[in-house]
Amino acid sequence: MKEIKEEDVITKEDEVEVKEEIEEKDKEKEENHDLISYEFKTKLGKKVESGEITNIDQILSKGLRIYEPAIVDKLIPNLEVDLLLIGQAKKSKFGGGKRRAFRQTQKVTREGRKPKFSTIAIVGNRNGYIGVGYGKAKETVPAREKAIRNAKLNIFKIKRGCGSWECGCGEPHSIPFEVEGKCGSVKVVLKPAPKGVGLCVHEELKKILKLAGITDVWSKAYGQTGTRVNLVYACIDALKKLSKYKVNKDFEKLAGLVDGEIK
Fewer CB atoms < 10 Å away: N or C end of the chain? Predict the structure, then answer.
């Protein structure tokens, strides 16, 4: 009979430590699996993979079209994803219910009713980059995946600053000037606000502005704002106009204007 040494005995504490190590390794593998296994097919994607392009500003400043969401995942690793509540509310005998993330529509055919689900996803890093995507499919999961994929492909950067005459702190906590966006009958006006005001906008627009990195803003909305899809795209139109207007250099210093990410 062989003698059993104390070193060979496995305690419960050792088992717990081993399990924790295995779980951590599995999580790391799952997070990096998509980028490691993915093969870039476009010229832009191969440049990102080889290291020629290391910053997403190199793509956005030239106006290049992104066809692979993995490009955005690699250049902006800390992206956050959220779904907007654009669906119908389930009504009950006690009143209206909560809105859902998926909007359901039906097509009547000879075989019966064929439902489809649509949703809007937003992606952002809370530091000057935001993207919105629309997805539609026969089931909810593929609709969500399509929306997230389109949101990554439609990512853009915004200008931030302190454009409020009440504040003048020179920090990029708000927007530098008033902008207006329109979609359908809905018109959204965003105005710079001083520190501490917060986001005085619609609940769904708060999600967009938070992921874009804006913390203080005033707003007005006109038209059929109950149509959430048009409301969201009107807000996105307003944010895109922040980068279209040219600003005086003196005002840039005064407002602490930042284009894109704060490094």
Answer: N
